[in-house]
Amino acid sequence: MAAALDPGEQHTNFMQWATKHGVEINGIAPAKFVDRGMGIVAAKDIKLPENIPVHGRLAAALALWYSDPSHQEYKIWQHVWPSKSDFRATMPLYYAEALQDLLPRAATNLLINQRAKLERDWVDLYPHMPSISKDLFEYTWLIVNTRTFYWEYPDLPNSHPRLPKKRKQLTADDCYAMCPFMDYFNHSDAGCDPQSDSKGYSLTADREYKAGEEVFISYGTHSNDFLLVEYGFILDSNRNDTIPLDHLLLPLLTREHVEALKEDGFYGNYTLSSEEPTICHRTEAILRLLILGNKRYSTFVGGDDDGSKEQYRVNEYLVQILTKYSRQIIEILEEVHALEVEGVDSKRAARRSSRNIKDGKEAIRSEQKDVLIRRWKQIGDLVNSAIGNLSR
Ligand SMILES: C[S@@+](CC[C@H](N)C(=O)[O-])C[C@H]1O[C@@H](n2cnc3c(N)ncnc32)[C@H](O)[C@@H]1O
Question: Where does the SET domain start and stop, copy by copy (predicted)?
């Protein structure tokens, strides 16, 4: 950081004159800089508002560093990060609208939340950093999104003064840490498990590795829809994969059903998994309410009945729902296949793509379409294998 030197009496007098004539100066002052003449220096620590989640504050700090040529400290690290165009190619946030419209339900919900968080952080922060463009903030926000680690640290009575002393003062959105070098690791559902404590992070191999073999870590027990929206990729095989069933089951409920489920804490969040048990306890509960009525449902959720006697009927009912969904998935896949890709499928698509770029809208890229096709095929396989398991 270049030293800020005393500007001299003339500048102090001018500052007083400007203030007297209505110029409002808050927390800054004129100063002299070597080779740059006069400039403005922070006259006290200027902090970003404290009530904004760490995600937004980290993104703001990175954006300010990026745009300040004198801030060289982290440039060597920033040079190894993905570019804006890498994010544009992979993150559903930048998918063309026609492609976003065909995202699976879980991914759509995650994308809506992500966009809302990003917008909230931008609206809260841009008044404090008028020189930063939204484009740059979006980029650094995604850097934070894809490269930070969750840091569940204990209470730290003797910690560094910058760290909050009590864990419980923080929400999950505050437990973010950026870790140079650790952020090289790609994710696998069976990767090494990073450990953290008040000193930082460490990683130990989970098994033997041959030289040249990729060493993965696990970012957490994430479904492929989560990985797609938050990180821009999906795994070919993911033992933590699940799909939500809410959009299939909630429309079947009466008002009385909704009240009963809400009262018991069983409303929503029904999932189908790639691993056994295929259906979660919540799904077992809602299905019993739908098929067997209030009394049998209550004995099941109350734990007085394990529900095994009616399991056949429950499975049969769900198989009917899933079979219908499986047909819908085939239709969705046909729609995705029919989408025109930038500059490949036809001259019309190419013309539209250049028009879209001028409009600031994205065109569909073939690799994005391929990811979506793979994802819908995975969902189809998951549903069909559940139908097979439940029909046994
Ligand atoms: C923490 S960074 C890992 C390093 C990153 N690959 C890079 O080039 O800097 C997370 C990003 O890596 C990519 N990534 C991580 N795991 C992946 C995987 N299993 N398959 C494909 N891409 C992956 C995604 O783009 C994700 O947003």
Answer: 21-220
